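## tool: complex_structure
## caller: assistant
## args:
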Amino acid sequence: MPSDEAAPPEAIVRVRLFAAYRDAAGASELTRALTDRTDAPLTVGSLWAGLIADHPGLAAVPPAAAVNAVLARFDHVLSAGDEVAFLPPVSGG
Amino acid sequence: MADVALTAAPIDPRAVEALVARPGAGAIVTFLGVTRDHTDGRPIEWLEYEAFEAMAVPALRALVDGVAERWPGATAAIAHRTGRVDIGQASVVIAVSAAHRAAAFEACRWVIDTLKTTVPIWKKDVWAGGGASAWVAGSVMRSTPGPDGSGVAAE
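## result:
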């Protein structure tokens, strides 16, 4: 996945990481470009694959994902400006 | 206090109960989840809770709504801590009122059992002696099941 540093604001998605994922990536928020090298549409799953490539520690536990604060499947196609949250197994209570 | 709350401050169980008090209620069941001083025999200094608030508040709301749908006439309120919670304090308080005790017990049990898989909150054990810590293994998050069992799958 290319660096998003030069991408215009409308061509990115925002990523939020919580708990163990935040620790593994060393960040609670990231941005990623909306298109990958193949120009295939970015999905939740391909976004996660790219994040694991950058931060192998993320692969330790399987995530749930939410797009704009609603649970989403991994084949969900992302749009510009979406906020994608990756949620490690929850342990409230 | 609202009937659904995330708070960094200690929770007063009586305040949560007051939210569900009704003239028609014959029972109020209150559950306190309390921070324990050990995990698998290892001493714990305190617990640290983190919430994805934008999703956690609606997920708690879905539990309150779920009680009203499944146990007509029953009313629930939930308060959950965030941040550091010292040993012996309530990390979560759930109060349910109903006309009769059976529904109040059942609904309260359903709320805490379901909360553990449907609300994006995470807890970390901070071990005694040196500040080492570990996120507690949990359950893959799912949506709150509807009265007919629907809504388990994402989207």
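## assistant note: Chain B has three helices and nine strands. The beta strands of chain B are 4-7, 27-34, 38-39, 42-51, 75-81, 83-86, 90-98, 121-127, 133-135. Handing back to user.
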